[in-house]
Design a protein that fits this description.
The complex is a heterodimer of chains A (102) and B (269). With 102 residues, chain A is of the alpha+beta class. Chain A is built from three helices and two strands, in the order αααββ. Chain B has helices spanning 16-29, 46-50, 60-64, 70-73, 99-112, 126-133, 146-161, 164-167, 184-188, 195-202, 214-222, 233-245, 262-267; strands at residues 3-8, 34-38, 75-76, 83-86, 115-119, 137-142, 174-182, 205-211. In chain B, strand 3 and strand 4 form a beta hairpin.
Amino acid sequence: MGLLDYFRSRTPNTSSASVAKERLQILVAHERSERNKPDYLPRLQRDLLEVVRRYVHVDDNAITVTMEEDGNHEVLELNIVLPEEAAAAPKPKPRQRSHPRR
Amino acid sequence: MSRIIVVTSGKGGVGKTTTSAAFAMGLAMKGYKTAVIDFDVGLRNLDLIMGCERRVVYDFVNVINGEATLNQALIRDKRRDNLSILPASQTRDKESLTQEGVERVLNELSETFEYIVCDSPAGIERGATLAMYFADDAVVVTNPEVSSVRDSDRMLGILASKSRRAEQGLEPIKEYLLLTRYSPERVRLGEMLSVADVQDILSLHLLGVIPESKSVLSASNSGTPVTLDEKSDAGQAYRDVVRRYLGERVPHRFVEEEKKGLFSRLFGG
Ligand SMILES: Nc1ncnc2c1ncn2[C@@H]1O[C@H](COP(=O)(O)OP(=O)(O)OP(=O)(O)O)[C@@H](O)[C@H]1O
Ligand SMILES: [Mg+2]
């Protein structure tokens, strides 16, 4: 190997291998979190949307259901974002209380 | 009691069949009664790598369908009589491999053999999922390359959820990383993921590192599992892998480049 290679090998952080590693770490972490989700989540999300809409009109993407691992138990997190005008809209029966949790 | 080992990867062409042949031969060389099964229905190749392609009469699917007995289909290795090969079928009907059929054949093999090595096809279709379903141990063959590492991680997810052990809540499959086609020089140049990089990402127990080696091609040319080639670096690496699998403590080799002096490091050599 030549002199240039020697110095190149001294700066491993910009090497193509370290770029590969970084990309893989991000991708694998993401795919693992997706993988652990139960497969009923999309259906649950659709059903919840339907129920909420009986009371207040929310967008298709106003509801997110996520499953997260927290130590040794799993947390199912339901997030509903009510529209701005929901408060002003005709009062639903019974009053639905729902807060975004984050 | 026999142990079922699946050699799997997700990605194609990473060295599963090479590994299955070398590993099964290595176990047989250690004296264990070993069977190696080709699960690649439609793309039979293990017979060729094992050098017994001209002795195939019946295959795995014939046994499942009751068209032949297991003994009729098993091919006894000419070099080691404690090693047998069950070839894959060349049928294009992938449905011919059934879970019940595979289970029956594995149960029957367990009566005679101490180790059963399952050579998985690439992908996540039936052949691959059935090859791993009944496994006790999994050798995840990975190349130091992004798509192979990603697919290996995917297979780990399937091993952990879609296997018999997972479904029945038994002790999980033991998973081992086998890094193959490794080139220490390219790692040093920053062109290739290192063993440590791959381990950081997959967090698996490292069974061994098989170097990129010309001897693998010549072994396949002649139908000799590379483990039998004493002079080959890959053959030696596979022997080490077998010893480690059997519980011996064997230091990893072929991870570093051959030692060179500073002079040649600086000015090429
Ligand atoms: N350590 C190695 N050094 C050099 N070449 C190798 C090495 N391991 C495997 N190969 C080569 O890579 C190619 C693919 O190997 P092999 O058939 O074992 O892969 P596979 O994972 O079984 O493929 P498939 O997914 O198609 O079943 C072959 O040509 C083989 O000779
Ligand atoms: Mg193969």
